[in-house]
Amino acid sequence: MNQNADLWERYFSERSSRIKSSIIREILKITEKPDVISFAGGLPSPEMFPIREFEEAARYLIPKEGKKMLQYSATEGFPPLKKFLSEYMQKYGVPAEPENILLTNGSQQALDLIGRLFINEGDGVIVSGPTYLGALQAWDIYNPKYLSVDMDDDGMIVEQIEGYLKRGKVKFIYVLPNFHNPAGVTLPLERRKMIVELAEKYDCFIVEDDPYGELRFEGEDIPPLITMLKERVIYLSTFSKTLAPGLRLGWITAPEYVIKKFVQLKQGADLHTGTIVQYLAWDLCERGIFRAHVKKIREVYKRRRDLMLENMEKYFPEGIKWTKPQGGLFLWVILPEHIDTYQLLEKAVELKVAYVPGSPFYPDGRGKNTMRLNFSNATEENIVEGIKRLGELFKSVI
């Protein structure tokens, strides 16, 4: 340990020992080299960003509203944007009035606020195995007891959820219903109803994390869980996967009393989400650009998903399974049990291709033979070549 670290370690809180780096962020450092084909990040396609539209919005708004845009604003969020989101979510049946919405610095801040407000040390939190790594990072510091539920092609296995609920007190169930990160699967309506019924029966609540719901390529939209039991569901979403992640703009939908508690916590964290980004996002929403842009990226991401699946069929050897997502940004690969994808990553990078090993997505470290692939942020040419390289690597170890 260097001298500086030796000095500061003495002052850190006990809970700081639970803080871990994100493996995805660490891998992205490796894959920044231009010759590495990366399927590692959860990145939207930068060439699809509505740059011209943002420029137009800034040119229009800053002369007109600049004094307000550059000023402090309300913790709850910019009222016209909240009104738009309230009306927009109505198309999915989400029962949200503006007072049920809090604008956040991405949905990652929403996850942190949930941990701060609800998790006591040792509280039972039901998650899927695998689950979103960012949620684990947000909550690890509060030291919950993660109760990991296996998944199949239809998402979380409900019988295992009830098994945990029967055995002891659970604070909440964390659900990624649409195009799950990292698994890519979607929870069907029947299972959603069952999870909602279980939450009511066993007196817990649900955190419904839905960053990808707008990115459906096929099939019909499935009603969110919040539409079935609004009193027991906290719903999260974000503009990161639809407009641009650099906005750092997400939102929480919850009962008004809970929103007031979140507001108090957010005041202590950052006072409010950036005023200028809320104005810009509202302008793009109000002018219909948001809806048109989502339609455009759906078409591009569908084409890339199809190409990745087609080439996996072509180049991957027998003994490997993968999910076939109906939307979103990711698919999940399961290799034979004797293969450790963490160890394999070094060889992959030598071949100039990268992925995210699966075990960090499990709170108990399982899934060493799994990996996540992202299809949204690679060109079609790179998808073909990258999957070919992975296929060669897999053939060499199977």
UniProtKB/TrEMBL annotation:
All copies of domain Aminotransferase class I/classII large, residue ranges: 63-390
GO MF terms held by the record: pyridoxal phosphate binding; transaminase activity
Cofactors named for this entry: pyridoxal 5'-phosphate
Assembly description: Homodimer.
One family name in Pfam for this protein: Aminotran_1_2
InterPro entries: Aminotransferase_I/II_large, Class-I_PLP-dep_aminotransf, PyrdxlP-dep_Trfase, PyrdxlP-dep_Trfase_major, PyrdxlP-dep_Trfase_small
Similarity comment: family membership: Belongs to the class-I pyridoxal-phosphate-dependent aminotransferase family.
Keywords: Aminotransferase, Pyridoxal phosphate, Transferase
The protein's name: PLP-dependent aminotransferase family protein
CDD domains in alphabetical order: AAT_like
GO biological process assignments: alpha-amino acid metabolic process
Gene3D superfamilies tied to this protein: Aspartate Aminotransferase, domain 1 (3.90.1150.10), Type I PLP-dependent aspartate aminotransferase-like (Major domain) (3.40.640.10)
